[in-house]
């Protein structure tokens, strides 16, 4: 007997990991909850290191444009017509029970030309349309596109039957709202969320799923009497200065401290070579450099202090691991507006989990070393996050089952 339901996802990325891990966790939860087939339209530059669920069929949308360079410049949409035609053809072939966009329409506004024909077709054919949103940030609102977004977002959101936001109910919203820099932004944010409240569910966080091939034996054993500092750069798409400064900080701190630096799978060969040379130059002998790890949580649990950006996956794991954290939220160097989901989430972790924030433009090896030493001397364990915060994948699967 063939599965009754078919789910077709659309997602893209900037060589980050959060979008793929959330999607993978959702697919696994859906297939365990509902007899179904799953199809994925992958819209970014293929990430060959990612392990998608074996039960899912992957379609790579032609002319991919969203990669790590998208953080610092305009994205090319010159092939939107071809991409739109490809997506619509797959929809007509699969005939899904539900079409699920990842992050769109809260973000990825540049995908509107490729998605709009399909959304109208799906609406006409009475197919359910859902949005899977990692966090309640209207990303294009703070990227100098607010006038366009204010005009488009209400009408586009009307095409969706339900919107699933993967945080605990209203937990991150006040922090996002506080990060907005103009009255116009704050007013629209509040009004828009109120307008979609009836068809919005907050599922709780989605715990990161293992999506990377193990590339080495992770060094999880901690030497006695040594403070282990774990640096995680997420996917490795941004902020190389963070790793360089951490290596220099380890040299300042000396051999009573050990640094494990996980650079991220998107790290280039040129960057890896530079980091290795920097270790030799600074004589940071107690530094271990890794390109990636298949299980960051194992490393976190066996560390004393964490240093990281504040991406979705890392922050969720920090809340679970109860490790003292130094957070350097990502900031787009080409934008004067510092508002991102990372800044809002960093403030949440600072307020509720005693995390220490260092602004990226204030980062130095000396400040990082001093902060590590201060946190280590205090020996304070962050509070426990409620277990109910981390059921996002199962909750969405259950709600989808009710709404199809």
Tell me what the structure shows.
By secondary structure, this protein is an alpha/beta fold. The protein has helices at about 20-35, 80-95, 110-125, 145-155, 175-180, 185-195, 240-255, 270-280, 295-300, 310-320, 340-355, 365-380, 390-404; strands at about 5-10, 35-40, 55-60, 100, 130-135, 160-165, 200, 225-230, 255-260, 285-290, 305-310, 325, 355. It has two domains: about 5-210 and about 390-404, Glycogen Phosphorylase B (Rossmann fold), CATH 3.40.50; about 225-385, Glycogen Phosphorylase B (Rossmann fold), CATH 3.40.50.2000. The chain contains 13 helices and 13 strands. The strands form two sheets. It has a seven-stranded parallel beta sheet with strand order 3-2-1-4-5-6-7, with helices on both faces. The two termini are about 20 Å apart.
**Whole-number radius of gyration?**
21 Å
Number of domains: 2
CATH superfamily membership of the largest domain, which one? Answer: Glycogen Phosphorylase B
Parts with pLDDT < 50 across at least 5 consecutive residues: none
Helical coverage, percent range: 25-40%
Element-by-element helix/strand order: EHEEHEHEHEHHEEHEHEHEHEHEHH
Q: Termini separation (Å)?
A: 20 Å
Number of helices: 13
CATH topology of the largest domain: Rossmann fold
């Amino acid at each position: 007997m063939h599965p009754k339901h078919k789910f077709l996802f659309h997602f893209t990325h900037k060589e980050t990991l959060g979008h793929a891990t959330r999607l993978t966790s959702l697919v696994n939860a859906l297939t365990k909850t509902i007899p179904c087939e799953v199809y994925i339209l992958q819209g970014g530059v293929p990430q060959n290191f990612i392990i998608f669920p074996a039960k899912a069929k992957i379609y790579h949308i032609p002319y991919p444009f969203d990669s790590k360079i998208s953080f610092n410049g305009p994205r090319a949409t010159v092939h939107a017509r071809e991409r739109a035609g490809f997506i619509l053809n797959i929809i007509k072939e699969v005939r899904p029970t539900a079409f699920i966009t990842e992050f769109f329409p809260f973000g990825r506004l540049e995908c509107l030309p490729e998605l709009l024909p399909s959304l109208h077709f799906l609406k006409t054919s009475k197919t359910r349309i859902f949005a899977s949103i990692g966090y309640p940030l209207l990303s294009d609102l703070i990227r100098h596109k607010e006038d366009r977004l204010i005009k488009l977002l209400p009408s586009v959101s009307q095409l969706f039957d339900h919107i699933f936001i993967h945080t605990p109910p209203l937990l991150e919203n006040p922090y996002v709202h506080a990060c907005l820099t103009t009255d116009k932004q704050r007013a629209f944010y509040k009004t828009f969320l109120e307008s979609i409240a009836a068809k919005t569910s907050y599922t709780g966080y989605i715990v990161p799923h293992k999506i990377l091939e193990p590339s080495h034996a992770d060094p999880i054993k901690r030497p006695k009497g040594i403070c282990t500092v774990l640096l995680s750069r997420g996917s490795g798409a941004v902020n190389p200065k963070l790793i360089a400064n951490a290596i220099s900080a380890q040299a300042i701190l000396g051999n009573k401290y050990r640094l494990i630096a996980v650079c991220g799978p998107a790290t280039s060969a040129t960057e890896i070579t530079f980091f290795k040379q920097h270790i030799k130059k600074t004589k940071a002998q107690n530094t271990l450099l890794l390109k990636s790890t298949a299980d960051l949580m194992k490393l976190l649990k066996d560390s004393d202090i964490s240093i990281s950006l504040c991406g979705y996956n890392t922050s969720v794991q920090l809340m679970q691991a109860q490790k003292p954290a130094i957070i350097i939220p990502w900031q787009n160097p080409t934008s004067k507006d510092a508002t991102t989901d990372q800044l809002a989430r960093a403030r949440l972790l600072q307020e509720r989990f005693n995390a220490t924030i260092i602004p990226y433009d204030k980062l130095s090896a000396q400040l990082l070393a001093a902060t590590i030493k201060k946190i280590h001397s205090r020996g304070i364990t962050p509070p426990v996050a409620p277990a109910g915060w981390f059921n996002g994948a199962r909750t969405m699967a259950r709600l989808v089952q009710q709404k199809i």
